[in-house]
């Protein structure tokens, strides 16, 4: 019996020893494999000849640390890398960042191309010209950057033809003509914001103007999206709702660098996702509810009879899908998830970026007294319309105020970082280094670096609205890339411009605004794909008297 027990113990020890040996051997094999990967990435990888920080060249740890852990600070490191390593820097094993403006827009001029701005993908001897963001099929979005859990949304669609088809459906809703037709509606929303401002002013309280900008943009874009405003400005807890919307975009870097966590939250059981990110699930559930309500309200016959002013984004998506299915039975019905994803992207993209931009514009208006003086002189001279309002067309024609809006977009870049693209067949020739980036790998150019480039914008760190006035200012428009550029630029840029022009013009002319302590700290920013301030802009207000004519 004793011998039998000892045999069992011996066998157990042997099993444990074998398990540890297997684990140890696996660890050794994995370590050898990783050493091999590192050596390959440093020596034999197609991007091995491009310089960069050691940790960036061998893996994603450094990028992930600054983006996901420090929440959007990588953008501040990239200029330092260029100072040390030159115009082309390897940010991770499969992506390089380029600080050469000729590669974004122009290597040679060709009058056959719109605006004359093109890009050489080969040296001058091979005139195969193209642009990373131009309207062509060559450069495509980098899948590693566009996987955040809303894959069917137009913005996240990678195949060029699929993106173009979705874009063609949405473009008419955001056209300049359609936006101009919405002027009366813009004023309805502006007056609702001003009513709320007046309530704070009467109490002598500081005005949460930043959060109110969120309500303004959200209520407008939701009306355009669903045919029903979310009426955020009327909610007693509107400031908390704004924080919820910010949270939704705040997790973008975590989603990109921890795909297993993203999959668990987006594809796993909702109760599990709720434990990991209750606010995210709250927002997703809300977007799905809005999408379902819009689908329930949809009537194809009524949608077909609506004039362009009344047509919603969901109307166009559903009607277009219905038309295509009648023409081609193979076309699949639009899925609920398609509408939910699109509503999430458009609602967030149409709310947070323009709201933040208006906050920065208000900040700059208060920060520079001479700028403020010139803006008010222009606005006070505008003839009001029959309703006593500042007409959109008149405001858009003001040279200095228009320059102010553009300088705000340059200084506070809506999308400050890079939107990586995959290099097409034949590679991408970079004049600054006289070398070609091989096909199949990602390249990126930070929009903020373009906006701060002294060769394009002299004294880039100075706030100078006058730089946009006259013929020279018109030329600079080719380098204003706040809304990105080309076929994948922001579909809602016309809407954003109109929202900013009308809100800022009316706010500045109607109220005397006062900056509060802590504002400078609040307006520091991080890159969350969109520019994200560290706090909210609050102001003190007093009604202003304007004498016209």
UniProtKB/TrEMBL annotation:
Keyword Oxidoreductase listed: yes
Domain of life: Eukaryota
Transmembrane segment boundaries: 20-40
Keyword Transmembrane helix: yes
Cofactor or coenzyme needed: heme
InterPro entries for the chain: Cyt_P450 (IPR001128), Cyt_P450_CS (IPR017972), Cyt_P450_E_grp-I (IPR002401), Cyt_P450_sf (IPR036396), Cytochrome_P450_monoxygenase (IPR050121)
Key words of the record: Heme, Iron, Membrane, Metal-binding, Monooxygenase, Oxidoreductase, Transmembrane, Transmembrane helix
Molecular function GO labels: heme binding; iron ion binding; monooxygenase activity; oxidoreductase activity, acting on paired donors, with incorporation or reduction of molecular oxygen
Chain sites annotated for binding heme: 490
Pfam family, one: p450
Database matches in PANTHER family: CYTOCHROME P450, CYTOCHROME P450 12A4, MITOCHONDRIAL-RELATED
Protein family per UniProt: Belongs to the cytochrome P450 family.
UniProt name for this protein: Cytochrome P450
